[in-house]
Design goal:
By secondary structure, this protein is α+β, with helices and mostly antiparallel strands. It has a single domain, classed as Roll (Ubiquitin-like (UB roll)), CATH 3.10.20.30. The chain contains two helices and seven strands, in the order βββαβαβββ. The strands form two sheets. The protein has a five-stranded mixed beta sheet with strand order 2-1-7-4-5, with helices on one face. The longest helix is centred in the middle third of the chain and has 9 residues. The structure holds FE2/S2 (inorganic) cluster. The site of FE2/S2 (inorganic) cluster has 13 residues, from loops.
């Protein structure tokens, strides 16, 4: 049974089935943005792998394409796609990301 620590929430959840990080989080009331409903169109469900990279399924070609599109580093995966191996023995630690890709620049008017 794999143990997954959601670092921001300081919550460890055990799983005995292959399950995506997004489903595991939502099933345990951890809010994760997932704008496209796991359709591989938005990348809003991305998260950081802090420990236990070997516990995750390999990214599909479509997931890799989306990760490359936004130039995310290797430790970033999509929560709706990355499944956890329930037989992984070590600790898995994930961190959620609030915002890393902001298309809009914030303009602050300093003149009065
Ligand atoms: S929810 Fe949109 S890519 Fe995962």
């Amino acid at each position: 049974m794999a143990k997954v620590l959601f670092s921001k929430e300081n919550l460890t959840i055990e799983t005995d089935e292959p399950i995506s990080v997004l489903s595991l989080a939502l099933n345990n009331n951890i809010p994760v943005t997932h704008r496209c409903g796991a359709e591989l169109k938005c990348s809003s469900c991305k998260f950081r792998i802090l420990e236990g990279k070997e516990a995750f399924s390999n990214p599909s070609t479509a997931e890799e394409r989306l990760l490359k599109k936004y130039d995310y580093p290797d430790f970033i995966r999509l929560g709706c796609q990355a499944k956890i191996d329930p037989n992984y023995e070590g600790l898995v630690e994930v961190g959620t990301i609030i915002k890393t890709h902001n298309k809009q620049k914030r303009v602050v008017n300093t003149k009065k």
